[in-house]
Amino acid sequence: SQQGEEDPQALSIQEGENATMNCSYKTSINNLQWYRQNSGRGLVHLILIRSNEREKHSGRLRVTLDTSKKSSSLLITASRAADTASYFCATDPFGNEKLTFGTGTRLTIIP
Amino acid sequence: GAVVSQHPSRVICKSGTSVKIECRSLDFQATTMFWYRQFPKQSLMLMATSNEGSKATYEQGVEKDKFLINHASLTLSTLTVTSAHPEDSSFYICSAHPPGADHQPQHFGDGTRLSIL
């Protein structure tokens, strides 16, 4: 399966600043999902945005989706040290629950 | 919420050993589970789809005789890495999708770190 691209690959910011990560994908989608992975752990689901939605919020997280550009962004506001993790976008290109993951962004929050 | 448990969390063994990894859905039945592999600092790559009561379907390039999958019940899938070699060392993660409406996320186990000496 073809992976999506995420940028930046790595991002280091000071605690309290906002972090923005971008994801591009290649096929049409029903929805796009964002996951967080702490080092050496499994994935934790953050937000799912449907193809007919343009923006979605959950606490300090804001996700946008532009299907015309096949891209999505994840914004984390007022970052905390505990937000340090890798973040992945994922799509289900064929509607069969098989997820295709982006390359991921490693986010480091500096206290 | 839906919970997926994976065991063991870490395995270190000698080359040639076969290793079994379990993935359980704790509070829902999963007719389908997924196995992923993740190399250091890389993304997750889907290896295979585990289907309850039938054969697993493997992604291109994944050897089915190397990675044996059994999904004998609605809450348990196992991945056996047969005759493991150092190149099989990786992080293996399973996921399952609770039944019900569309647009629901996958739930992931905590992963198994496999190290072959």
Description:
The complex is a heterodimer of chains A (111) and B (117). With 111 residues, chain A is mostly beta strands. Chain A contains no helices and eleven strands. In chain A, a hairpin with a 5-residue loop joins strand 4 and strand 5 (43-50). Chain A is globular, with a radius of gyration of 13 Å. Chain B has 117 residues and is an all-beta fold. Chain B has no helices and eleven strands. Chain B has strands at residues 4-7, 10-13, 19-25, 32-38, 44-51, 57-58, 67-73, 76-81, 90-96, 107-108, 112-116. The termini of chain B are far apart. The mean pLDDT of chain B is 92. The chains are: A mainly beta (111), B mainly beta (117). Chain A binds chain B through residues 1, 3, 30-31, 33, 35, 40-45, 48, 50, 88, 97-104, 106, and chain B through 4, 6, 32, 34, 41-46, 49, 59, 91, 93, 95, 97, 102-111, 113.
Counting DSSP H or I runs of 4 or more residues, the number of helices of chain A is 0
Low-confidence stretches of chain A: none
The level of helicity of chain A is under 10%
Following the backbone from N to C, one meets helices and strands of chain B in this order, namely EEEEEEEEEEE
Percent helix of chain B: under 10%
Rg of Cα set of chain B: 14 Å
Count the beta strands of chain A: 11
- Report the count of strand segments of chain B: 11
Q: Determine Rg of chain A (CA atoms, Å).
A: 13 Å
